[in-house]
Amino acid sequence: MEAAALIPESHKDLLEQAVTITLVTLMPDGQPQATPVWCDFEDGYVRVNTARGRQKDKNMLARPKVTVLAIDPTNPYRWIEVRGMVVDFNDDQEIAVGHINKLSGWQRPTRQRTTGDDPHQADACDHWRGLIFCWGDSLVLGVKIRINE
User: Fold this and answer.
1) 132 with 89: CB under 8 angstroms?
2) Cα 108 to Cα 10: distance, rounded to the nearest angstrom
3) pTM for this structure?
4) At 79, phi and psi to the nearest 5?
5) Which CATH class is domain 3-111+121-142?
6) Cα dist from 124 to 39, 49, 98, 106, 109, whole Å
7) Is the dihedral of CA 133, 135, 139, 143 positive or negative?
8) Cα gap 68→21, rounded to integer Å
9) What are the phi and psi torsion angles at 110 (to 5°)?
10) Which residues, in sequence order, are CB contacts of 17 under 8 Å at separation 6+?
11) Contact, 141 vs 76, CB < 8 A?
């Protein structure tokens, strides 16, 4: 089954709109680590963006099992949980910074990797960014059902 087929139309908006989601990764000791992040959904993948070297980045590189939880900000009883695997990391800074700009609406200059010798070589995007592609292999939906209308 393709990843896109897992996401029903009834909940796809939670991954395509400006919703802060929870990304759950696994720490070295197996403890879950939950981080609020932005995401989008494109070509069947939930895509998240992170500054490289952060804990979630380290966790996904070492242990690629992830869960994404998106809760409707207007109805907390409507949510989607996608469980799956990280299948790709994209370190191309033009693409990764373009992605975070899309998600945040902010403009950040593309950072060039430097040797770190010059302490004055910093800009508004002072993190080497990565774009992470997650493929869902299981899905849990939450919808409040009214019995008495």
Assistant:
1) yes
2) 33
3) 0.75
4) -155, 165
5) mainly beta
6) 21, 16, 14, 11, 7
7) positive
8) 7
9) -70, 125
10) none
11) no
25 contact partners, CB below 8 Å, separation of at least 6 = 32, 33, 35, 55, 56, 59, 60, 63, 65, 66
Number of CB atoms found within 10 A of residue 67's CB: 19
Share of the chain above pLDDT 90, in %: 23
Give me the pLDDT at residue 123, please: 40
Question: d(Cα 22, Cα 69) in Å, to the nearest integer?
Answer: 5
* Cα-to-chain-centroid distance, residue 144: 25
Quick: pLDDT tens for 105-117: 754 455 444 444 4
Instruction: For residue 100, count other CB atoms closer than 10 A to its CB.
Output: 21
As a whole number of Å, the CA-based R_g of the chain is: 17
Separation between Cα atoms, residue 89 and residue 93, nearest integer Å: 12
Angle formed at CA 16 by CA 85 and CA 25, multiple of 5 degrees: 30
54 SS3 class: coil
Q: Residue 48's pLDDT band (boundaries 50, 70, 90)?
A: confident
Least confident of 52-61, 66-75, 111-120: 111-120
The type of residue at 72 is D
